[in-house]
Every structure is written in C-alpha cells, then in structure tokens.
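Predict the 3D structure for this chain.
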Amino acid sequence: MPQTSQSKKLIHIIGGGYHQVALVEIAKDMGFRVLVTDMYENPPAKAVADEFEQIDTTHKEDTLRCAKKYGIDYVVTDMTDVGVPTAAYVAENLGLPGIGYETALRFTNKYVMRKSLQGAFASNLPESHYFESAQDAVHFYHDVRREHDFVVKPVNSQGSRGVFVLAQESADTDDLIYAAFSESRERGILIEKFVRGAEYSAETFVRDGKVHNLTLTKKYHYRQNACIDERNTFLGDVSSELEQAIFDLNEKIIQALGLRFGNTHAEYKVSDNHVYLMEIAARSAGGSIGSKIIPYLTGFDCLRALLHVLTNRPYEINIQDYRKKFAVLRFFNFPAGQVKKIVVNENAVRDLLVFTLSGDLTEGALIKPIKDSRDRLGYFVVHGTDREEVLRREKLAESAVKLEYF
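Done. Predicted structure below.
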C-alpha cells in the first residue's frame, strides 16, 4: 500500500540556498517529506520543500523549537557551514542521528579546529593567532615582525567571506581586519601566516568512521583576491605521490576530529613539498562539486549516500577512479561597471554539466570587484572523457556570456 503524505517520515533540512536544492530533491525522491528552514523569506529550496519556516540558520534554539513543532524524524544540512552546528544541536537535543555538537564545532569554528589539531598536526598548521576583538588584532598586526604576509579570517564564516590577505605593502589592512570581524558575527578572528603555494581540496565520504576518498581538486584564485576560487580543475595533472600525501593527512585529520559519518570538504596548500591544512568542513563542496561533479567523475552520489546513512538505509559505497574523466568548474570574472546588455551564446552552454548565472546579473546592475564569494555572478562546469576537449570547451564557455556596459 502506498504511503500517504502524512505517513511519510519528515526530514528537516537546515538552509534553503541554491546548493541545498539537490538535497531536498533527493530526500523527496527517497520518499520523505521535507521541512526547510532558512533565514530568507523565499530561498530556492522553498519551492521544492513540503514545509517551510523562515528561521536564521545560525539560531539553534529557534530551529530546535521549529523541529519540535513539526515532530521531525531526521535533521541534516549540507553545502553550508553555518548550518552544521545547528543541525547537530537539534539532533543531539532530540535524540536523532547526527555528528554531535562538539564534533560540529571542530569542523566549523576555525579556532576550535586548530586547537583540536595543534598537538599531533602542529607542523601541518600555519602559524596562527586568535583574537576576540578587532582592535586587539589590529594592534597585534602592527606590532608583529612582518617578514611575510598574513591572512585574516573569521572563525565561523563560509564562502571565503571576510577572508583577506594582509599584504605588507597594503594600506587598508585595518579595514580588512574589521571587515573580517564583522563577518564572524563578532565571535573572533584568526590572523595566520599566509602560505604561498598550490592549493588543493580533498573530498571524502565517511561511514562508521571509515574515510572514503572521492576526488582531489586543483584550485586557482582571482588575481584581486588570492583567497577566492576562480577555477577548480579535475584534469589528472596531480602526481600520485602528492595525491596520496594529501589523502593520507586528510584521513588522519578527519579521524582526529571525530567525524563518524557524512561528507567532508578540506582545503590544503603545498609549499616546499610540505602540506598545510587551511580548513576542513563536515559537508560536501559547493559550486555543484558535491551534487554534480563528484557523481559524474566517480559514479558515487555523495548526497544520496548521506541521506541513506542518516536514515539507516543500506547504500553500497562503490567509487570509480575520478581520474578517468575530466571536469573544470569556472566562475565568471566580469569587469566592474554598470551592465547595459547581457548576451548569452546558448549553443556554447547547451551541453555543459552546469551553467548558472546569478539573479543579480541584470541589465542596469552594477558589477563590483570580487572581494568574496557573494560577488561572483555565475559559473559553469565542463566535463568529458577527453582532457583536451574539456579545455577547449572551457574556453568556449568562458566567452559565452558577453556584457555591454554603460
């Protein structure tokens, strides 16, 4: 006998942004009803959810009250760092499956993360200093001997919001420190040594404490902000030795931080053949990496796997070698100015794995220089089994959007 809508179990998904839509759709495909809570009135996931309440994702008690009101059976989030502690808090208070609130803090609060890893992994962490006030951080920065650049980052932001390089020759370092503190919701910032070198991200899925490697991404940044991704590549151009070194360190860090199940997204830099952890999150990567790129490259749906493990349903972990296929994620980098006209070459974007433009990109819009992820106005993903063809299609897609300015 088919289930009625009221007899279906209810999953509470915290955060209703664009990247959460896929999680909602998979949950419904699995036969669940879905409650979404989000700070905005009309987030993208609201349209596909069964129930919706407008609640700030970071407000634990308000979210818990909502969960009790609806009598949820499960609670989860993905692709949003700020929702991870809230989901863990709700699960812990209701006796539902979750990663644990303390574990969630170790994966979302950069200061707690570094304190937890300082002993065994001190050599893999950049020199770092924590401040509870922006003024103290400014004083430190001006007093410290600056043989090298630093980076300032909020302890609890996401999408590189409030993350800036404090270069020795810059005149606006005080403003950047105060901006970082503002993005932390006044919960503290880190000033740490800026590590120069190539950057990579490691994606994994964890079940019963066992870490399953999915992909390794090579990352490139905007010239105007060395902390913001412009291009992520899966092109088979990372040596097997370096890949293994990052995967081995990543597995040890995940286990040290105590994650028993779920997706992880970790960022590393390699300088003078030494691997440094930048940060690690208990969620899958955004930019359609978790929802589109990983399933394409590996044949493994990490979002569906997350929901199966959460709800104690069997799910076979069968991961194909991601290096047998290729993909490039590219964010657009439009010049600053006021947009007069937007022209899209539909033929150039028709067969892409992903192509999306921000709703903020409209005629008359004022494009700002890119300071954090919110300033990026769209991206695309090219994919295929021929590396050179993927690179050719990347160039074609990059030029598919033409802007005319006033």
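The first strand starts at residue 10 and ends at 14.
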